[in-house]
């Protein structure tokens, strides 16, 4: 039996504060869901919305039948939920589900921050995502179906901890998509720890395997953006990132991200007509829907020319030369 790291915490004891826009569960949606998993289905904090679980399970079962996936665990993400919980902590909106071992984990995750360009503003705020797209360079989340792929670990620089210089290497888990998400690799979409190294200077360290030809390495400070925004990738806290990556490394599984383009367009139409998503049989987190007004999907065919034109308008960039550390 496959087991996840014990550092994950079961969410059955999480706050039962209602933040969704649909009933916690319906018989039709949960008929074939095991009893132990049904207690985690709903729109409260720490629960998974019925439509998200339904699609994530269907994807995983399909990929298992096709022989593409052997991993008994699968992943899901609800990008309609807010970044912050009612207790002020990062809000759980990414799910690791292992039905064989009867384990359900809900953890925080980032979503795409987007951009504000002269011809189009598709930037997202820190709390709720309004804009979504599959355009390369949009820095936006794209809902749909994915498979986890290989990992790549890269050196980001050195940082100081307890008076010592330490290298920071971050592992990136690639995603392969299908349909509207099939350009996931072109977009460099995947999952990684929600930490980056903000470069400040370069120091001489000729004995380092990461030193350049002059013996210098970049130094900086670690910035943690757990539960916030990203460049379109899925990001996790330092506490769970290694566990999730080790769960699927060499043993790929399915990942379903909600919402897809059709969901976004349907919710937007309902809002414009004065109908709540729940009345229309749709789902969107009610807290975020109140904050964003209505969601917007930017198809690649519409947004890509705008991004490409903006890129062509940029002046040539000078090579970055960090100052010498003092």
Automatic annotation (TrEMBL):
Signal peptide: 1-24
Keywords in alphabetical order: Signal
UniProt protein name: L,D-transpeptidase catalytic domain
Source organism of the structure: Roseivivax jejudonensis
């Amino acid at each position: 039996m496959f087991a996840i790291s014990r550092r994950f915490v079961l969410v059955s004891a999480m706050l039962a504060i209602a933040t969704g826009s649909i009933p916690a569960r319906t018989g039709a949606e949960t008929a074939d869901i095991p009893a132990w998993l049904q207690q985690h289905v709903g729109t409260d904090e720490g629960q998974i919305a019925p439509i998200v679980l339904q699609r994530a399970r269907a994807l995983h079962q399909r990929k298992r039948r096709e022989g593409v996936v052997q991993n008994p665990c699968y992943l899901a993400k609800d990008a309609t939920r807010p970044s912050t919980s009612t207790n002020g902590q990062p809000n759980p909106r990414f799910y690791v589900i292992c039905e064989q071992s009867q384990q359900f984990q809900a953890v925080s995750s980032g979503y795409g921050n987007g951009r504000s360009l002269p011809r189009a503003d598709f930037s997202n705020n820190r709390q709720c995502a309004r804009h979504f797209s599959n355009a390369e360079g949009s820095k936006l989340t794209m809902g749909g179906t994915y498979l986890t792929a290989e990992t790549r670990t890269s050196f980001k620089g050195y940082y100081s901890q307890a008076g010592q210089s330490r290298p920071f290497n971050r592992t990136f888990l690639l995603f392969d998509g299908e349909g509207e998400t099939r350009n996931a690799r072109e977009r460099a979409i995947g999952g990684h720890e929600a930490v980056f190294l903000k470069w400040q200077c370069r120091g001489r360290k000729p004995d380092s395997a990461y030193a350049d030809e002059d013996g210098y390495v970049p130094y900086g400070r670690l910035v943690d953006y757990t539960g916030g925004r990203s460049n379109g990738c899925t990001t996790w806290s330092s506490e769970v990132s290694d566990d999730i990556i080790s769960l699927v490394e060499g043993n790929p599984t399915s990942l379903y991200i909600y919402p897809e383009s059709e969901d976004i367009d349907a919710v937007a139409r309902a809002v414009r007509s004065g109908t709540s998503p729940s009345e229309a049989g749709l789902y969107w987190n009610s807290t975020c829907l109140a904050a964003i007004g209505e969601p917007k999907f930017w198809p690649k065919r519409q947004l890509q020319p705008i991004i490409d034109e903006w890129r062509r308008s940029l002046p040539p960039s000078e090579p970055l030369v960090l100052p010498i550390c003092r």
